[in-house]
């Protein structure tokens, strides 16, 4: 028998703009991502680690030089972290080594670069991580409801931080070095008028009775601005994860896979061996001919829609053009979602072991059924 040695230092993984060293082992992941880039807006891994990303405004302009995107760091954290804290450590280590920067939009006319914030959770703990360039601060969440949005949220409670965070703030003249250090006050833009607490306010009012349905309803809330649907900007996808502290129960992850959760179905996914892949929610791959990979970038915009996305475009036309048919279609969609929620609740409350064969096709079947309803 031949013996092969894997030298990880010789292997690289290509992210959106740059390549980084690969590691000996990566975890199985389920992610929701913009079709043109490598990283993810949100996702989960086989160990019950979940990460979500948000662009944040800070007083330090984000770098336009191509490096790691915040979304690349989401995916790398999920692939390499077996716990929330491990994922956080992965992200800040890569941030220190490679930095963050580059265009977050598939746009050849201008560069839209951002700093990043993350919500990182597992069955046992949760962290909020916020970054400014290579500098960062993190808080371990121990109670209540936490959200991330386009403004910095960490203040004086920081459970971990970049070792040079405070000296850097002093060098920029943003902090005198005296008094209590308030991360948000130091690093937020001087004129920060963003108001993005609608989701948090809504959940805090229901804190004692939050369910999966509560979370889905919140993500669908257009009146508060949590859900946005317009030609210039829209909520591209949504996800809700249930992470039981009882280790015998599986983590269940609900993904829409399509824009605007008010007209999308949250479909359940469970990590098991031999899970069935779902090509109908995978955008076309253009390989090295992808305009996002060739320089100068974004000279063309190929059709990146997957089959479920195209079905939803048809559904949107129906919902907007025919009131009666639209109501029936929406009712059918929500009934399908309700059936999925009820089936998952039975799994969570069951005392018996999970049969992988019963859930390996779960997400695939939900997507297939959803498309059939639209047709």
Kindly describe this structure.
- This is Secernin 1.
- It is a single chain.
- With 375 residues, the chain is an alpha+beta fold.
- The chain has two domains: 1-194, no CATH class; 197-295 and 303-374, no CATH class.
- Helices cover 30% and strands 15% of the residues.
- The chain is built from ten helices and twelve strands.
- Strands 3-4-5-6-7-8-9 form a seven-stranded antiparallel beta sheet, covered by helices on one side.
- Helix 1 (70-80) crosses helix 2, helix 7 packs across helix 8 (323-349) and helix 7 packs parallel to helix 10.
- The longest helix is centred in the last third of the chain and has 27 residues, at 323-349.
- The protein is globular, with a radius of gyration of 21 Å.
- The chain starts with 11 loop residues before the first strand and ends with a helix.
Question: How is the secondary structure organized here?
Answer:
Blueprint: E1 12-14, E2 19-21, E3 29-32, E4 42-45, E5 50-56, H1 70-80, H2 84-98, E6 115-121, E7 126-132, E8 135-141, E9 160-161, H3 165-171, H4 183-187, H5 198-205, H6 212-219, E10 239-242, E11 252-255, E12 267-269, H7 307-321, H8 323-349, H9 356-359, H10 362-374
Antiparallel strand pairs: 1-2, 3-4, 4-5, 5-6, 6-7, 7-8, 8-9, 10-11, 11-12
């Amino acid at each position: 028998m031949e013996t092969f040695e894997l030298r990880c230092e010789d292997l690289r993984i290509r992210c959106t703009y740059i390549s980084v060293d690969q590691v000996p082992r990566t975890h199985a992941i389920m992610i929701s991502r913009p079709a043109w880039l490598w990283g993810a807006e949100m996702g989960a891994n086989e160990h019950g680690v979940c990460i979500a990303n948000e662009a944040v405004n800070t007083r330090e302009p984000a770098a336009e030089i191509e490096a790691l995107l915040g979304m690349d760091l989401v995916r790398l954290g999920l692939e390499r972290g077996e716990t929330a804290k491990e994922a956080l450590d992965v992200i800040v280590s890569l941030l220190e080594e490679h930095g963050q920067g580059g265009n977050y939009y598939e746009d050849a006319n201008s560069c839209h670069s951002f700093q990043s914030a993350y919500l990182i959770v597992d069955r046992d703990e949760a962290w909020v991580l916020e970054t400014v360039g290579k500098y960062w601060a993190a808080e371990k969440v121990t109670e209540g409801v936490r959200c991330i949005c386009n403004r910095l949220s960490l203040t004086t409670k920081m459970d971990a931080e970049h070792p040079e965070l405070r000296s850097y703030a002093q060098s920029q003249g943003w902090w005198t070095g005296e008094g209590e250090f308030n991360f948000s006050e130091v690093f937020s833009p001087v004129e920060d008028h963003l108001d993005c607490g609608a989701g948090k306010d809504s959940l805090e009012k229901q804190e004692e009775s939050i369910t999966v349905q509560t979370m889905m309803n919140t993500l669908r809330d257009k009146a508060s601005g949590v859900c946005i649907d317009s030609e210039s900007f829209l909520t591209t996808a949504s996800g809700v994860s249930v992470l039981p502290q009882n280790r015998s129960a599986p983590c269940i992850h609900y993904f829409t896979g399509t824009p605007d959760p008010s007209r999308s179905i949250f479909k359940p996914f469970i990590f098991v061996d031999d899970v069935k892949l779902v090509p109908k929610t995978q955008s076309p791959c253009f390989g090295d001919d992808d305009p996002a990979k060739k320089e100068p970038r974004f000279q063309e915009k190929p059709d990146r829609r997957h089959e479920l996305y195209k079905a939803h475009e048809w559904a949107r036309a129906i919902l907007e053009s025919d009131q009666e048919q639209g109501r029936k279609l929406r009712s059918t969609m929500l009934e399908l979602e309700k059936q999925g929620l009820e089936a998952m609740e039975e799994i969570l409350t069951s005392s018996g072991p999970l049969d992988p064969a019963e859930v390996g096709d779960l997400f695939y079947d939900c997507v297939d059924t959803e498309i059939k309803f639209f047709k």
